[in-house]
Amino acid sequence: MQKISQLFETASNVIQSLTDNQKNPLHVGEAMACWTYLSFVNNIITYEEVGLNTTTDPGVIELYQDALATARSHKKQMSEFMRKEGVSLPNAPEDKPQSDPNAIPIGAKFTDNELANTLMINFVVAADMCAASASQSLRTDLGLMFLKFQTEKLSLGFKAKEIMQKKGWLKVPPFYQPPGAPNTKS
After folding, report:
1. What is the domain range of residue 63?
2. pTM of the predicted model, to two decimals?
3. 115, 50 in Cβ contact below 8 A?
4. 44-93, pLDDT tens digit by residue?
5. How many Å apart are CA 87 and CA 100, to the nearest integer?
6. One Pfam family this chain carries (predicted)?
């Protein structure tokens, strides 16, 4: 993930050098995008804390720790940005205390497969949300922040995909064979 972050940082510096960096006030769509993304991140942090309290799989734990660190970083950056711009912050749930995953009955907790797949859905939703917000932002600084967030979520998605493929958890839709195409199965 470090190399992708460095690549983004370099691209961001180039983009900023090519713009006038004029900082008009946020328009209503930009303010709403910030509020919506921060609200999403606040709630996904809770889910990630619960996931860490649920699993004992080392790969899933590492994935959840990385996801939680990224979400907390996004929360901090977006909160600081919104405060500076005078945008009210959404309410956030309380942090979950740590607990022993082995103390939770089997039927009352998600499986590692379910945890990984749901986290992957979070990455997809967050990346889509960030892409839409970046494309609708007139402010370069905000657009670049959303692009950075998108890049970080995509990086986590690639890591999750590797773990899920290795464990056999990746959900793959049926392959599409267009009518009239030669049969490639032997």
Report:
1. 2-10+26-167
2. 0.86
3. no
4. 999 999 999 999 999 999 999 999 999 999 999 999 999 999 999 999 99
5. 38
6. DUF3231
